[in-house]
Amino acid sequence: MQYGDLSLSNEIVGIFQGQRESKVKPMKLRPIYDDVPSPDVPIHILQYKISMATTFQQHQQLQLELNKELEMRRRIQWTMRNIANLAAAESNENSLVFHTMPTLLDLPCYSQAIQAFDAMCYELDDHEYAYRQLFVFGNLCDNGVPVDTIVESTRKTCSNIV
User: What sequence ranges are listed for the domain Legumain prodomain (predicted)?
Assistant: First the structure.
């Protein structure tokens, strides 16, 4: 995704850096080996807690929480795939919507699709993982799928979610 004045992306970086050499030497950073993508933090925390559990009951409870989180992720992925398949089938679009990042050419369509998903399927505030799946709506909108088709596909898919 890109933000701001996109016309600057065609400029040469050196134009903005000036002519003089810097007197400050760049600081060497030590390598990071334990970085975790933001949506995976809850999973890693639970896995760590499971490894540190001292009783069988703690271990079982944490394992249930982990399984619940993983199941929710599978449900969100299934939901997004089903919405996209329904919407794309009605508009004869291909399945590239799952594998590319959108350029967000139709922002009103994207916003309405996200609002429908948030209202009908999963509240985004409660499911951070769902944020990582929203690019599918951007691709559907960029491919010319009407927002009404996307919203209707969302309604059909999410009417069964409890």
Answer: 65-158
